[in-house]
Design a protein that fits this description.
binds nicotinamide-adenine-dinucleotide; globular; 16% strand; binds 2'deoxy-thymidine-5'-diphospho-alpha-D-glucose; 43% helix; Rossmann fold; alpha/beta; single chain
């Protein structure tokens, strides 16, 4: 009966992954290891907290002793590693935190798996969840493939690129059975409102300015978070050791078009005049080193493992907007305290 350790399970993507594994694999024990930083919230998992195959361990991946303790007690057969500092803007104001968690934390975790498994790695797997941002920025044309040269340009993406290199190094040097994926921008319920979509939904609701960076022509490839969880599930069970799989939604949006679409959806849901919320759009100072365009070629994952995204963008954006309107208490709780300070510093 396998035990799977998921790090960062109290965060946005991690909570969807934990929920999926707890429901789909009742024969597995799912251990959620999370330090509960500002981005981690056990409320995201209220519906599974009493499931018989679920355990929560509060631990920090920067602390090797804490990891050794959890690994010795649970003896995981698989690790799916999502814990990270994940917000580009925060990496610009505090890069070192990203080195500590994303680079050192990942190496600590690789060491913990190696120490536990030794040379007997049959049936074992270390899955590292990474980002398309390691590939840098695209022009108007082209896509990131698994062969695209790494070219990280923010402290966040540099730290994720470094962690990817360490994971591959442990495969080549120590035969650790690793697999990696690099995914595009996710959206959906439980997304922390420092990121574009939930921040815009919150501000539209509150009739506050909608801060669009630069000229608003930056492009992202948006993926429904539950489709990311299903891709991770597929790769964890069917992917080949030492391989990397790109995950994407084939769903490119310029930021300004996306924000306008969110305005229109929210106007409809809130019974406001059509066009009312678009008046809140405010162009603000650009993000330093802002990557122009991300777009993923996910054909390897589709052709080799048969994965595809399940829902269309407009449907996903409507679902997301509805969720944020129906979960006001969650939104209020996660935006009290530290968030207010962050918001004042970031947006003035
Ligand atoms: P998130 O910020 O919502 O959650 C991160 C989680 O990690 C939180 O629960 C936090 O408490 C935990 N954590 C942070 N530092 C920790 C530490 N030192 N020890 C233990 N736990 C710690 O992030 P997310 O958006 O869910 O992203 C999860 C992973 O997926 C990250 O590795 C990120 O790089 C990657 N990713 C995210 C996206 C995206 O669009 N959000 C896309 C591709 C890849
Ligand atoms: O591509 C995957 C990455 O996507 C993940 O690895 C990161 O963890 C995740 O945060 C995300 O990074 P981005 O920087 O693309 O996401 P963010 O939501 O911060 O910004 C999306 C776009 O919107 C980007 O072009 C910047 C812009 N933006 C963002 C914010 C917060 C604005 O115009 N205004 C804003 O207030």
């Amino acid at each position: 009966m396998p035990t799977i350790l998921i790090t960062g399970g109290a965060g946005f993507i991690g909570s969807h992954l934990v929920r999926r594994f707890v429901h789909h694999y009742p024969e597995y024990t799912i251990v959620n290891l999370d330090a509960l930083t500002y981005a981690g919230n056990l409320e995201n998992l209220r519906d599974v907290e009493h499931a018989p195959n679920y355990r929560f361990e509060r631990a920090d991946i920067r602390d090797p002793q804490a990891l050794a303790d959890v690994f010795n007690r649970f003896k995981p057969d698989g690790v799916i590693h999502l814990a990270a500092e994940s917000h580009v803007d925060r990496s610009i104001s505090n890069p070192i935190a990203f080195v500590e968690t994303n680079v050192l934390g990942t190496v600590n975790l690789l060491n913990a798996a190696r120490n536990l498994w030794g040379d007997d790695t049959s049936g074992k797997r270390f899955y590292h969840v990474s980002t398309d941002e390691v590939y840098g920025s695209l022009g108007e044309e082209g896509y990131f493939t698994e062969e695209t040269r790494y070219d990280p340009r923010s402290p966040y993406s540099a730290s994720k690129a470094a962690s990817d290199h360490f994971v591959r190094a442990y495969f080549h040097t120590f035969n650790l059975p690793v697999v990696l994926s690099n995914c595009s921008n996710n959206y959906g319920p439980y997304h922390f409102p420092e990121k574009l979509i939930p921040l815009m939904l919150k501000n539209i609701r509150d009739e506050k300015p909608l801060p669009v960076y630069g000229d608003g022509q930056y492009t992202r490839d948006w993926l429904w978070v539950k489709d990311h969880a299903s891709a991770i599930d597929t790769i964890f069970h069917k992917g080949r050791n030492g391989e990397t799989y790109n995950i994407g939604g084939n769903n490119e949006w310029k930021n300004i078009d996306l924000v306008e679409t969110l305005c229109d959806i929210m106007d409809e849901f809130l019974g406001r005049e059509p066009g009312a919320s678009r008046k809140l759009i405010t162009f603000v100072k650009d993000r330093p080193g802002h990557d122009r365009r991300y777009a993923i070629d996910a054909s390897k994952l589709k052709n080799e493992l048969g994965w595809q995204p399940s829902i269309h963008a407009e449907e996903g954006f409507r679902e997301t907007a509805k969720w944020y309107l129906e979960n006001e208490e969650w939104l209020l709780r996660v935006t009290s305290g530290e968030y207010q300070l962050y918001y004042a510093q970031q947006y003035g």
